[in-house]
Amino acid sequence: MAEQGVPESPRPPAGGRKMSLQRCETCSKEEAKYRCPRCMKYSCSLLCVKKHKLLQSCNGIRDKTAFVSVNEFTDLNLLSDYRFLEDVGRTADAAARHPIVHSPSTKKLLYYLRNRARKCNIDLRTLPVGFTKRRENSTTYNDTEKKFYWHLKLVFPHCHAEYILKRVPDDKALADILKPYIDPVESDPVICQRLKMYTMSPQSDVQILMKIENRRQNSVRYNELDASRSLLDNLKGKVIIEYPTLFVVLKTLKNDMVVLGQDASESTENSDSESSSLSSMEEGEIRDSS
Predict the structure, then answer these.
(1) Can you give the pTM of this predicted structure?
(2) SS3 per-residue string spanning 38-89
(3) Which of 61, 128, 214, 268 matches a 20 to 30 Å C-alpha distance to 281?
(4) Which SS3 state, helix, strand or coil, does residue 165 take?
(5) 188-221 burial: b if 16+ Cβ within 10 Å, else e
């Protein structure tokens, strides 16, 4: 399968040119042999494949929900969409048959969490049983302390690293949440080494982004969060599907993540006008801002 960044067979580009006539888009020296299933970049070797993943923050996994124009739509795209819908149907059917779905206590708990979030001006949405994010979510609300303890995912695209945090109090500042990961003094030595690119950079270069839900696949945008404010303050007025996922990027490095309001071609369309994709694979989707 072509799911890991090096497809098993070269594909000709849309213009009809053979891949042998294409230059590697990473080194620009050798003829291309491979094409990334996700970003469609050409590479000549495994070294260039890995380098392009690092530079483009690309995971090499084909995005099954990516936008394809009518002019470029082929029989392969139709077959891919058909199989994707079949997978969604099977997942939904399995979830509907799960005994927990019909449990009164489960429904009551989810309603309670959504209601509490609504009072905090947070639009919390939960997925059916069977979805990965639903199984992972450990978010709770402490009625005595009147605060959420969030299940939180931190993604560091430049280092291809992800970390799951549990029971993060909603009154904790984002800067304090990130300290054990990117602070050169307080971070764990193993994590510090893996996230060296972040720990060696000034704190002013660190940018925290969160994907805006309910947008079209060809119009993905991110909200920039304020590191000095609490998690609760940053989540207010936003849509959260199960739990927050924060993307930590460096302003000095190319990341292709378009921040809402900072794109010259940004239209005035309403972000709530489109239905959101529930696939967990879309979480790190990166769109080209150039």
Answers:
(1) 0.59
(2) CCCCEECCHHHHHHHHHHHCCCCCCCCCCCCCHHHCCHHHHHHHHHHHHHHH
(3) 268
(4) strand
(5) eeebbebbeebbebeeeebbbbbbbbbbebebbb
